[in-house]
What we know:
single chain; alpha/beta
Amino acid sequence: MFFFKNNLKECDLCKSKKYNVLLEHNGKVMTSDQQIKLSKIIKIECKKCGLVRNKNIEREINYKKKYTYNTSKKKDVQFFNNKGSLDRSSQIFDWISSLISKKQFLKIHTIIEVGCGEGNLLLKFQKEFPKKKIIGFEINEKAIQEGKRKGLDVRNLEEMINEKADLVISYAVIEHTTSPKEFLKSVSKILNPNGLVLLGTPHQDKISHDIFFVDHIFHFSSKHVQDLARFANLKILKKSTKQWPIDSFGIYLFQLSKTKMREIIRNRKNKCRDSIKFYLNLFYSVNQELKQIKKNEKFAVLGLGEFFNLLYTYTKLNDKKINYGLDDFSKNKKFTFPIIPINKVKSQKIDSIFVCVNPNYYNIILNKLKNKKIKIFLPFQKMKKH
């Protein structure tokens, strides 16, 4: 199956066996679904084309055996926006819809999502287009059953070869595969003539902490995504890589080419090396800032999502006694400290706050904290300059 095809010795894009080691880390590591575990990260960069990947790609049987889907009974993950908040799948649906015209949607009869999880995004498409044939394919059995409970047509990934689609969507999947090239080839095989592919993945065109995710096997610049797509005869129509607030992600709209596309291998620039340098310096700065917080101070962290877990994994924040967690959204995970809404800060005795959220939200957060006599740390402030 395409998820597990790989050649451990050569670059998936250009087949070169020469690389530079960008990052080696042994100890606590973080996964993209915010799990923290003990492992080893070795990220390497191909000398020929610049594609970055994990050095130790797990073999087919181990990868399949270890693959899990973090199903939960809570509501969809919430994102802030200028009007308040929006669930993750709605934000992605709106983003995808902005790239596909109404004229194109009229020609689409069958929509397939590859790696649909428990179907949150799929559900948006089903509600918006009830007359279209909409199918999700997933590798994890628990997620498949959860999707079916929502009334969705979710099937095992191995059944995908039996279907044809006018639009294939795959969001936050390709970076987890052991061969992005084979993944895209397999996707292109189920397309009808002139079929569309909507691919979403983290991009390395800007500074990003994605490089520190142990389960992200590959790291692409936008050009790498397009180069890989050419091997699957997919031509780029549109791309979007600056969507607020998730500007470290890109979505790419491809169409199946009527003619054979020429493969292109070039050394593409990416920000992985810069990201590693930036975040190692940031982790050091955070450790220095944590020393400023005295033992008798009431210390709180604001935000308990991805940015909090990043610091909790790679800095000494995990050694600090945290008195409160400030977060407006309920968390499925249990913490050793009480969680209170941000607007309840004034009712608690808090001396200092570490703001562990995407810096794109800083203005929103600071407005909520204004007039509070509290020492505020903004560890990701420098990201706004990048």
